[in-house]
Each structure stands twice: as C-alpha cells, then as structure tokens.
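job 3f2a | input accepted
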Amino acid sequence: MRVFSVTQTFPKWCPLPRGGYSITKRTQICFPRQLLIFRAKSAAEYQVDELQNFRMVPSAVLTSEKEEAKAFLTLFLKNQGLSSSVAARTINKSDHFIDHLVSRLHSVHKTWYLVGRELTTLEIRDALTPYLESLLEEHGSILVDVVENFPNPPRKGRKVTQVALANPTLDTKKIKAMARVSEVGPSGQLPPHILYLIEVGMDVGQIKAITRKFPAFAYYSLEGKIKPIVEFLLDLGIPQSGIPTILHKRPQLCGISLSENIIPTMSYLEKLGLDKKQWAKVIHRFPALLTYSRQKVKGSVDYMYELGLSAESIGKILTRCPHIISYSVDEKLRPTAEYFRAMGVDVAVLLHRSPQTFGLSIDANLKPVTEFFLERGFTIEEIGAMISRYGALYTFSLTENLILKWNFFLTMDYPKSELIKFPQYFGYSLEERIKPRYAQVRESGVKLVLNQVLSISGSEFEKLMKRKIKKLTDSKQVAVDIEYPDDAGSDMERQLKL
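job 3f2a | predicted structure (498 res):
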C-alpha cells in the first residue's frame, strides 16, 4: 500500500476565478500497488491492444472520440490547477495516452460499437472520469509526466510547474479538423455533414469557426449526430435561421443523446414549471442547458429549493434565465446568496426577480457597487432595500451607468430618499428618458415624485403633466382672486366716481 499527500495552498482571501475564496487543502490518498500494473506493458503491447479495439470503429467516429477525449482531458488537467497553456502542451505530447483512453471506451462499451451505436459526450466523460481520478490518486503531482510518457514509467521526482508558453502554436490535429471541413471527396463534393450544414444556413467559414473551438465537430456523423439534433430543434419551433447561432454557441449539443439525455432533461425541467412553449427561446438563449448532466441540473434546482423557492418559481427562473444552471452552487450561488443575506435581502425574492445578478463576481462586481453607495451616504440597510426593490441594480456598470446618473441626480430637486424608494431610476436611459422628462417638469414648475416622472408611458406622462399644469394654473388663479376679490374692486370704482 502506498500513501500520497497532495497539497494545494493559496494566499488567504485570494479570489478564485468564479468568485469564491481559496482554502488550504491536504488530501491523503491510499491505494494498492495493483494500480501501477499498467507500467508492466510495453508501448508495443499497448499499440496492439488498441489496434484491436479500433478495428471495429469507423475512422470518422474514432477521430471524433479522440477529440472529445482530448477536450475532456484538457478540462480535467485545468481543474487540477494547470494553466491553459500547460494543459495544451501536455495534450500535444500525449497521443499514446489519448489512444489509450479511447481504447478503454471501446473495451467497456464493445457491444454498443458492434451494433453501430456511437457514444455521446456525456457517456464519454462519465466513463473517463473515474479512471482519470484513479490516476490522479495514484500519481499526484507527476500525473502530467505519466500522461506525456504513457505507457513508459514516469520520471521520478519531476514536479509540475505552471509556465506560460510565449507563442503557443495551433494544434496540428485542430488544423486537420479544420481542413476536413473544406475537404473535397472523390465525387468532387464536400463531406455529407458539411453539405447538410450549408443547406440549413451555415457557410464554410462558420463551420470552420466552430471546428476551431471544438475540433470534434468536424468528425460528427450526419445521420448519427448532426441531423437528428437539427431536426429536433426545428420541431421545437426554432427557425432554421437560428440553427447556425445555436450550433456555434454549443457544438457539443450534437454529441448528446436525444433519447437518453436531452429529452429526459427537458421533461424534468418541464415538471418544475419550465414553459414548454418557450423551449425555442430558452435553447436559443442558452443551448448549453441541454448538455449538462442530470446531476448538475438537479444540484442547482435543489439549491433553489433550499432557498425556499417553489417549483413554479424555479420553472419561471429557468425560462427567463437558463444560464442559472451554469453557475456553480458552491462557488457562485451560495456565496452570492450569503453576501446579499448579510444586507438584509430576501435572497429567494432576489433570485426570482433577477437571477442574472447571481452570475456576477462578488469582488469584481458586487463589492464595488456596494462601496459606491456607501461612499455617497447610504447605509447597508438602505442599499439592501434598494436591491430588494430593484434586483437588477447591481448588474449596471459603475462607470457607464451608476456614476453618470448619480451625478445628474445631484442636479435634480430631490432628496436622496427618492432613490431608496425608486432605485429603478438607474434602469432608465439618461439621455432619452431622465433628462428630457425632468426638463419638462422643471420648466412647468409642477411637483412630481421620481416614480411619476419616469415609470409611466410617454402618453400617460403627457396627460399627467397637463393635469398638473392645469391644477397649478387654477390654484394660482384662486390665489389671485383671494388677494383681489370682485367686491373690493366694485367698492373702489364707486369711490372714484364720487
């Protein structure tokens, strides 16, 4: 039995990329020596084993799976703390290991390949995750060396150092994938799946852009992956003109099983209250929603239940802001909820009204806005009341919105309490709404609260102004009549005649 200790240490209160705070964590892992058994085989023996597994798989499918294995391995390495450049460099040196990962897929799911069934992206990741985690437990800090030198034994004592590559070159396989997009076959035509994508409104440039971002897309089969997804989206009511945008946002969508992943996920969300008539809009806004695992979706939903939201409210949130599923519960949703709860805000109400607020960084977005209002004399309680009344308040830019509108507010004849009552002021256009309407109010001399000036429609505002001006004119006339009554004028005339 061997014991490894893996330590990750960051400065206290050092902000992490997703808005959380780092901690020092030490994990001690025990594992049997049998896990090291793969070192006993030679590279030649592994190549023979893998060649046998690869024989039953079409070359296009094999290439696609290799690209997906590379993408997942890159993500796995980055999750262990490697920089993007180090992870990319490791992938470029790991052809044998990538082949080994794909070979494992074929060994585990051999019967599926025999009947012509392709693995989905989620199935590939589910199959590779436990294996990569076991390697991490076994090798700890020399995992990169294991991957790069597979199947040879890693060099002992080598430490992984995060360094940035000065001029990283484009991956050769990525270039090949992009070339496949415009490759002309013996018949003088482009590959069938490329022709189909052109028929639905994409051009070769767009397809290359997708392939550059996600090389596996160039190898997806037409009948097995691309066409079923496109037809499914069209059946949901998405116009054909919207297909290129959706595929560009989330090409991985074509690698997800309709029957085993997408449709069950949609049914689950519909039971929560997501409006099935709005699926076209939801997917157009955030196609990645359908590529998340059930565990990921359920984790986010369970947390919203924990906050006290009803299934109906959760359904409405997901309909308006499907991006909420992409936010990490522990690194984004929970810390943001605690931040606003400390200000006296009802977090469930805030999440229902403005879910996009929970996607903001605490350090980069929330704290600066809070400090802005504190510096201008508002209390934490008053700021909490403002965000409770207007959930989108923190989504505005300080320099391009809040500061400019605050400076103009100082020229208006209103107390600061008007903003506490009506923080929606910051949501209106300064040049097109606030300034012109306030100019009318000031010139007429009438008195209106800030809510009346801004919240009503243009026609209603004009009617209100006419009523207020008439009332003001009538009140002035009454004042004149009181000061100079008609009877007094008649007595004066009689005295002059005498």
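job 3f2a | The two ends are 129 Å apart (CA to CA).
job 3f2a | closed
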